[in-house]
Amino acid sequence: MMNACVAVSLLLLGLFPQSLFSDRTAAEPGAKRLAFVSNLMSHTLSAVDLDGQSGFRNFNVGRYPIFSSLHPHDPTKLIVALHNYDRLDDQDGIVLFDIWKEKVVKKVPIPGVGMPSGFVYDGKRNRIYVADENLNRVFVLDGMTLDIIFQLPAGLIPVHVDISPDGKWLAVTNRKSADLYVYDLDNILNDAKDGICSIHLGPAPGCLWNPDEAGVTATSHPIDVKFGNEANVCYVTDYNTKELLFVDILKREVVARVAFRDMPFDFSLNREKTLAYVCQVGGESVTVVDLGKRKILTEIPGLLSNPIHCVLDEERNQLIVGCWGGARTGGIYVIDLETYRIQKHFVLEGAAASIGISIAREP
Fold this sequence. Notes:
By secondary structure, the protein is mainly β. The chain has helices spanning 4-8, 192-195; strands at residues 33-39, 44-49, 56-59, 65-71, 74-82, 93-98, 103-108, 116-122, 127-132, 137-142, 148-153, 158-163, 169-174, 179-184, 196-200, 222-227, 233-238, 243-248, 253-259, 264-269, 275-280, 285-290, 295-301, 307-313, 318-323, 332-336, 341-346, 354-361.
């Protein structure tokens, strides 16, 4: 059984805003850390001791776990999205995993055959917004119970979501329609005509397009989205054009681009929102981008097995990176951001496609 201290003093470093937990989750700088890693293709959630040699433990939370985050009102619980690759009507949903009891204590099914993906917490309205790739919707959940309260239309294959720092805008990337859907959260239930807009990011692929198909480079394939310090500007990775896009919400256009050598996927921002750490899933590296200067600072090489998702530990000045592994292997890397060197590599035996990561600390 996991130490009970872990469950009462966890610090989220993933999808929910870090400030939400800052008062009640302070920990000593040397406190032991655990990474909860979603292994999409092996259907496991791994708890990894980042600072010790005790290895890892696997838990069954359902098929195809993809992204996770601690519950905003109960840090003893982990919220995990089940991505439902098989598109079965009883395998999708959002599950609540009790870290202390080490078991699923609640499952919220998606109406229809869903494929829930990225999600984000709205502290202003106490809601959670979940992108669903198969139903082309954004589901809005109660921030306390996780029950679905309403849903919003989205473009084709919405994958990631984020909220502007002032809480006004919700932005959602749409992989197949090459759009960024933007929702005015102050007006969303009043008038869809005024409350929702779409920003086209590039040429749409068409019905038969496959983003992994060799030679397909002319179309756009937006993946991750994050807001920086400016409420009206967000950043979007484009897998197919190999760029980080700077999108102005009010102008409804891409205002700048940073080009990469390989395909960018998920990324994280530092606390000051001045740097982006971008996983290059095909290039075995993480690229560091200066957002103010709009240029690449450096690349961190040597991340084998396709780095796809990352989270920051600002107190330790480390980046934790999950690896897709070609859907056959998985694992995570720990990178020192002072030296940009790999400090540790955790090979999670039996894990395939390690993608979602949430980090916790003992007090």
